[in-house]
């Protein structure tokens, strides 16, 4: 039987093994893609094997390299990181399956580079999820930025390169200008960078210093897309749809909000967080981000752009829940990482399917398209319900706990902001599938309807898996909720 430490090593190394296999078999597309699928399945099975020991509170820790006393590349399997790694590892295989249909159906070039960089990104995610300290987390956080940049610029067009510059500029600028500074300040104030239950700061640490430090973390983790450092996310929509799925559901933005959750819980501690003066104004900044991004999403006519601003809004939910510094708020944030991952990846999968099968990108072009692409648009409808947070989808639970968190903290205005944003999400999401089924004939103008087929079957199968996940999470959220309870 493989030991727990060996399982943790395997979870970190499997994506790198996959990179080697993908590069080696690059000219044999079926074998290359089989390596990606097998690696994703093996990684998910490995992470699942860590569930029981982590749930029981066993210490599963490894150390790769010690640079100096107290500063090392080290990893630990803990509940919050396990939750993130479970989602990312599962969705790696599903996104690969989708990409097989999309990349071939859309005639994309440089597919070997795409799959290998995707594997590197997942490896970086595993490093972030299992990081034992802030130094290790920062290293893999930057690896994730650098490995996803070529994916954003995959098309090689001027527009793609421009989007890539915005992407790289904001993410590197915030991480070096704010995040790294916050890490150094944490080292100086606390004498440690290790993630510690209850936080690392002494009770007599000046709250003014902690206020500055919290602001540096919130703005420094640019991948969380807190306004005004959110523009990289819409700019990155020039990437192929599987990359958009990676950015929004599997890796990048989820890495950002995961880092914020981990910092709030294991660097500050919820009790300390609730006593910091800056927490309240950062809470309201997150609430304003939720509302403004929803309004901007409503104004977008390009489908992927609307989904991108929707993500900015939904990330604000997670940031807000963490900053509420209550158990219900934190539980809602952690659950929303899971629920949003399945809902948003389904929406982007559907957008890509529409592009491949119908060559349409604008919302006004989708009238009547549900009659030619019924599976895709039913999936879009169900995923929209999950993002909104209503049955029969798992998004119901995360929104419920976030609302409870605002009540627990006595933040009535924030509760009103959450409700207002949910109403706006109804306005910018539900009209799309409703018009697809109940208006027009799929044409921009008159003439006989064009027969439009569904996307290639691998993409359609992936859409089916994530759509089913959106619904199953309503009935089976307990495995994730129990992990969150252990983390708290």
From TrEMBL:
The chain crosses the membrane at residues 6-25, 37-55, 80-102, 114-131, 137-154, 166-189, 209-233, 245-269, 281-298, 307-331, 337-357, 369-390, 410-434, 455-476. GO terms for cellular component: plasma membrane. Its main location: membrane. Residues 131-424 form the NADH:quinone oxidoreductase/Mrp antiporter transmembrane domain. The keyword Ligase does not apply. Keywords: Cell membrane, Membrane, Transmembrane, Transmembrane helix. It is found in: Cell membrane; Membrane. This is Multicomponent Na+:H+ antiporter subunit D. It comes from Microbulbifer rhizosphaerae.
């Amino acid at each position: 039987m493989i030991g727990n430490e060996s399982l943790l090593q395997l979870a970190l190394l499997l994506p790198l093994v996959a990179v080697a296999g993908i590069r080696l078999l690059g000219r044999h597309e079926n074998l290359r893609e089989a390596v990606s699928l097998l690696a994703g399945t093996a990684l998910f099975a490995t992470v699942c094997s860590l569930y029981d020991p982590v749930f029981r509170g066993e210490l599963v820790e490894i150390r790769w390299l010690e640079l100096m006393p107290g500063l090392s590349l080290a990893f630990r399997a803990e509940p919050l990181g396990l939750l993130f790694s479970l989602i990312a590892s599962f969705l790696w295989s599903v996104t690969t399956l989708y990409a097989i249909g999309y990349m071939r159906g859309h005639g994309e070039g440089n597919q070997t580079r795409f799959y290998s960089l995707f594997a590197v990104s997942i490896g970086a995610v595993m490093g972030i999820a299992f990081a034992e300290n802030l130094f290790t987390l920062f290293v893999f956080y930057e690896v994730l930025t650098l490995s996803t940049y070529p994916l954003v610029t995959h098309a090689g067009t001027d527009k793609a390169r421009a989007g890539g510059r915005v992407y790289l500029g904001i993410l590197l600028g915030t991480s070096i200008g704010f995040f790294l500074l916050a890490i150094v300040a944490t080292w100086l104030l606390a004498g440690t960078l290790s993630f510690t239950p209850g936080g690392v700061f002494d009770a007599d640490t000046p709250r003014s210093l902690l206020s500055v430090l919290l602001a540096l973390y919130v703005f420094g983790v640019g991948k969380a897309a807190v306004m005004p450092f959110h523009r990289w996310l819409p700019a990155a929509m020039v990437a192929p749809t599987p990359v958009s799925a990676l950015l929004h559901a599997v890796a990048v933005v989820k890495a950002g909000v995961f880092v914020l959750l981990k910092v709030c819980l294991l660097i500050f501690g919820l009790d300390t967080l609730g006593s910091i003066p800056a927490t309240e104004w950062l809470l309201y900044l997150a609430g304003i981000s939720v509302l403004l991004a929803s309004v901007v999403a409503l104004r977008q006519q390009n489908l992927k752009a609307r989904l991108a601003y929707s993500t900015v809004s939904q990330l604000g939910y997670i940031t807000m829940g963490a900053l509420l510094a209550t158990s219900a708020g934190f539980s809602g944030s952690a659950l929303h990482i899971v629920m949003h991952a399945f809902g948003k990846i389904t929406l982007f999968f559907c957008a890509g399917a529409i592009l491949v099968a119908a060559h349409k990108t604008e919302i006004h072009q989708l009238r009547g398209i549900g009659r030619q692409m019924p599976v895709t648009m039913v999936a879009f409808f169900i995923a929209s319900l999950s993002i909104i947070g209503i049955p029969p989808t798992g998004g119901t639970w995360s929104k419920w706990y976030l609302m409870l968190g605002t009540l627990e903290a006595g933040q009535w205005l924030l509760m009103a902001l959450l409700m207002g944003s949910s109403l706006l999400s109804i306005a910018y999401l539900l009209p799309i599938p409703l018009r697809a089924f109940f208006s027009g004939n799929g044409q921009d103008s008159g003439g006989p309807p064009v027969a439009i087929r569904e996307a290639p079957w691998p993409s359609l199968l992936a859409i089916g898996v994530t759509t089913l996940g959106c619904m199953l999470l309503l009935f089976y959220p307990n495995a994730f909720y129990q992990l969150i309870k252990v983390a708290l």
